[in-house]
From TrEMBL:
InterPro entries to which the protein is assigned, alphabetical: DUF1129
Protein name as catalogued: DUF1129 domain-containing protein
Pfam families, A to Z: DUF1129 (PF06570)
Chain segments annotated as transmembrane: 88-112, 118-137, 157-178, 184-204
Keyword Zinc: no
Source species, domain of life: Bacteria
Signal peptide: none
Alphabetical UniProt keywords: Membrane, Transmembrane, Transmembrane helix
Amino acid sequence: MEEYLEQLTSKNSDYFHTVIRQLTDAGKSDEEIKTILEDVIPSIVEKQKSGLTARALLGTPTAYTDQFIEKTTASGKSSDKPKNTNKYLMWLDSFLLLMGVLAVVNGAVGIFSKTPQTYGIVTLVLMSAGAAVVMYIMYNNYYKAQTEKNGSRWKSFAILTLAMFAWIAIFILASLLPKSFNPSLSPIATLIIGAAALGIRYLLKKRYNIQSAMDGSQRQN
């Protein structure tokens, strides 16, 4: 395994050094760690030639090591299985949550308003989708910002800032679309869409055990 470790890129090498440290801190023996990593590291060495990183393939170091560490609750029973950190599912989870909340609030306000105004459907979708991307970037860069050098923290901050400005630009442009491309729904319809989005999110989260991008507790070492 040592020969493959030497072939890792700097970024992937840092990733597996963190994984090894976390497994060691969890009480895993050298032999157990070798068994865990002997298949995955050669695979990463091969896939990094295509520009893929260990983080992109395996999730954060904490998420990866959690599946090999038995955690117990205060009662001494094993805790729930590790959260699913698939980036597409995490984005979808955030998208449905944001769209659900925005639509429910917007629809409810419209129902009780004398001059109801609801977001256009395109604005609602793009605003939720963009915000979900920003939330995933926050989640995905938090670990680096806490464990790596200042340069990495500043890089993460810059990426997040650019993403937020991009989201604001998308929201502004979407709101300027003509109503023929961005029709506004009735408050009742908006409310129903919001409730449906929240319901679908609940079912998906229950089915796939999706990690929430807003839950910082899972980001820690």
